[in-house]
């Protein structure tokens, strides 16, 4: 588990409500209001998208919404910066492939 | 001092380097080799390279690569950084959907 | 279009400080920030700040952020979040994106306090998931309570690289190595020592040559570099890591100023493209000001002063403050700013290699190259007649602007004087009571209490401790040297926490008297097997 539940300076972490969301069709859990990228990282997801030209994997890079490397398809909308977009219950997140969704075989 | 705009200067032939394959512009996936080649094609300013290759014109608008591209040009042309202007800044500075850009709010805050 | 007296772009330390000063003078002030939370980077700064009282020294960054926010609120500053300023025009008009709409706003004065963006270096594989900026690491662990990785390699030994490395360890991550292409550590020696004594190795004159992994980071290869920063073939070293963190400097985010037509210069000492400003931050366009990192990369402490100066100047520019009042306030702030601009790490000293301190003491080369003081160095800096009983040992050996230790001691044992970059000196005539206030107040965690006569054959060492789990009285563990090498068994004889210590725990361990001047950290017994 990579969540920090107790910190020597910041103390105990207060989390929002636990909610379910969907990552490429698979159900995952995260805390409401935290950035989508954080919920994904807690669930072990490192790859957010594949680039259009070279089809290379990308993930979190700047974590403050500047670099746009962590963009994914959120509720059908591509290019959503997951590091600054709050998680909402029931969200459908998809790995982005170029500018469309990655086809996932289930 | 050498002028950036002296297009007659001889910058020598393009010689490939071992790290030419490294991505510089992460959004548009432009490599160091492509940027160096562009300079040898006569693109001496950051703006020219940007229009020629689209480096710095992707989603992040050159947030990460702006400085990297500039450094490559500085090395290739053997000039000092102060001689080379960064890319033009203009609105909108951050990526924005056309429907939002066209949606001018007229009511007060 | 909405009109304000003053618009501030950026709700970080300088922007908020500017807005507060201006609002106090009676201006209507609106602050726009593109982020969802105000405070800029302050809320990720969990370490105690340097400086003196007027710079809020020894207070942790996030606490300073909370104070600024409540002050801004109290004086009626309007802070708009998720409000991205996308353009600025010469006649002091800005274009803001809020939600799904664009909005034009106008002011009679504008202060740009947009801060900086992170620089990056490129290497084979640098686009792989797992390669992140130091800011990303701070955001994840200090704002959202998630570890950026389990095993991290840090590139960059400036203060950001050093501070974030320590924070990574506080978050429970392992820092495998700290790498920098420079032959010398760039940041404060005290920050480096905090990491070194935990056993983190420094690889100076090294750089990353390859990030390894099929689709995310599984390892990293570093190589030594020559005098031209070119990797030397055959010097490669490999580490298994899941995260590579880059802290290789910042660039001013000055695009708005440039687009508005302000005269710009390229100044490497300020971090890149910056506006030409006068001593109060006014740009070439009257009424447009720049404050904080956007006009030159520095620390948050100076950004706050610059912000206040620009806020007062904007108030005077619009006639809300008399020239006389402006001058007296600004003079005071200028003195405060100047005191931060002294010493070995002053903006004007960037890249200079100091061989001696202001006091004429030879600088520790070990500190610059390995991150810790060599035993032989200590004697040069602690030359006082050792008395019996507990006494402070101060391992602060560089001229940095910081003096909380002087105020912390109730017995006035520690003297720095008016110049806050002077090295602290111990007054041999004063008697140390062992209260530990100096240990807890030292932002660099460089003060230890040593008692060579604790028990026959044994000395006690009190050290600052900011990790979990905290040691308990009676615990047996390992005493570590300044380089993190195990020295032998140490027994915890006292553990002190107090509100005044602000989350720094004072741990006292008993070690053989021969280790009194070598043991500087403690590792729990459970981890001994890893040593």
UniProtKB/TrEMBL annotation, chain A:
This is (2Fe-2S)-binding protein. Keywords: Oxidoreductase. Pfam families: Fer2_4 (PF13510). It comes from Acetobacterium paludosum. GO terms for molecular function: iron-sulfur cluster binding; oxidoreductase activity. InterPro entries: 2Fe-2S-bd_N, 2Fe-2S_ferredoxin-like_sf.
Automatic annotation (TrEMBL), chain B:
CDD domains: GlpA-like_Fer2_BFD-like (cd19946). It comes from the Bacteria. Residues 23-73 form the BFD-like [2Fe-2S]-binding domain. Keywords: Oxidoreductase. One of its GO terms (molecular function) is oxidoreductase activity. PANTHER family: ANAEROBIC GLYCEROL-3-PHOSPHATE DEHYDROGENASE SUBUNIT B. This is (2Fe-2S)-binding protein. It comes from Acetobacterium paludosum. The lineage of its organism: Bacteria, Bacillati, Bacillota, Clostridia, Eubacteriales.
UniProtKB/TrEMBL annotation, chain C:
Keywords: Oxidoreductase. One of its GO terms (molecular function) is oxidoreductase activity. It comes from the Bacteria. PROSITE patterns: 4FE4S_FER_2. Gene3D superfamilies: 3.30.70.20, FAD/NAD(P)-binding domain. Residues 390-419, 422-452 form the 4Fe-4S ferredoxin-type domain. It comes from Acetobacterium paludosum. SUPFAM superfamilies: 4Fe-4S ferredoxins, FAD/NAD(P)-binding domain. InterPro entries: 4Fe4S_Fe-S-bd (IPR017896), FAD/NAD-bd_sf (IPR036188), FAD/NAD-binding_dom (IPR023753), Metab_Enz_Cyan_OpOx_G3PDH (IPR051691). This is FAD-binding protein.
